TrEMBL record:
Residue stretches spanning the membrane: 26-46, 90-108, 120-142, 148-170, 200-224, 244-266
Protein name per UniProt: ABC transporter permease subunit
Keyword Transmembrane set for record: yes
Species of origin: Paragemmobacter ruber
Gene3D superfamilies given in the database record: MetI-like (1.10.3720.10)
Cellular localization per UniProt: Cell membrane
Length: 281
């Protein structure tokens, strides 16, 4: 039980440090300290509770066991990461985002598409992935292409809806000013409306990062080659190898977090003029 008490003491100390930092410290780098401390406190409490109560690994492995599994299977985890995240999630994300931005411009040009496509998009976005994934596997096979297709379907409409909303967000006075300068549609689009739409577009891009990772992993449960994160999770659960399951979850969570952070970093560079970015500084 001593390990559990040490974990509780660390939790209390981390909590106090977070409160002190939140009240006194400023800056983006310092802002990373509270979530890091909170995460370490959760891991310490998890480790102490599992060891103090003797929880079996098939129920809940300790974080130290999970990290040991990660260290012992780096090659396997890397191969699964490339198959699922790089080939499936990233490629589907890139195609879905690119297609959504092009269609958003077409929708903006056509009132008919605005009234007809967006309601259909909301309907399709509500479809459960467990229903879409088997269809994509049937159409595109068991390779990464079917996972990319699932990701495409998941990210397309959130980005489309946000992009269309962003294209209408430009200030009316600014649009009237562009017309007084005899600016055409495309000039106004690239000089005014797209820059004004960037906060909306990046909101959709950030939502799509997590959807891409989730979609690629879940799609592998319905058919995949003998590698991939979803395939490894399903086989490890079947053999009660829970440390490997949690190792894959750790890699997936880390990948999704870094992907989201990368998009958020680009957002700060592109939309530095927006009030939300100035407040954060």
């Amino acid at each position: 039980m001593s390990g559990l008490w040490l974990a509780i003491v660390f939790w209390i100390a981390a909590w106090g440090a977070n409160v002190w930092i939140a009240r006194r410290a400023r800056g983006r780098i310092v802002a990373l300290v509270p979530p890091v401390l909170f995460g370490l406190a959760v891991l310490a409490l998890w480790e102490g509770a599992v060891r103090a109560f003797g929880v079996p690994e098939v129920i809940l492995p300790a974080p130290s066991v999970v990290m040991a599994t990660v260290g012992a299977n780096l090659g396997l985890l890397w191969g699964d990461f490339v198959q699922t995240i790089v080939k499936g999630a990233f490629s589907g994300y890139a195609m879905g985002v690119g297609a959504a931005l092009v269609v958003a411009v077409l929708v903006d040009r056509s009132p008919l598409l605005t009234r007809g496509l967006l309601p259909v998009g909301n309907f399709v976005a509500a479809l459960p992935i467990v229903g879409v994934a088997p269809i994509m596997v049937t159409w595109f096979g068991f390779g990464w292409q079917s996972k990319a297709a699932v990701v495409f379907a998941m990210v397309f409409f959130p980005v489309l809806v946000n992009a269309v909303a962003g294209l209408t967000a430009a200030d009316r006075m600014h649009r009237d000013l562009m017309r007084t300068y005899a600016a055409g549609y495309w000039t106004t689009l690239f000089k005014l409306r797209l820059p004004s739409a960037m906060p909306f577009i990046f909101n959709g891009l950030k939502i799509a990062t997590t959807l891409a990772v989730i979609g690629a992993i879940v799609a592998e449960f319905f058919g995949s080659p003998t590698r991939g994160m979803g395939f490894r999770i399903s086989t490890a659960v079947g053999s009660l190898a829970l440390p490997m399951v949690w190792a894959q979850i750790f890699v997936a969570a880390l990948s999704g977090t870094l992907f989201y952070g990368f998009v958020a970093m680009i957002e700060r560079r592109v939309t530095f003029w927006h009030p939300s970015q100035r407040v954060r500084g």
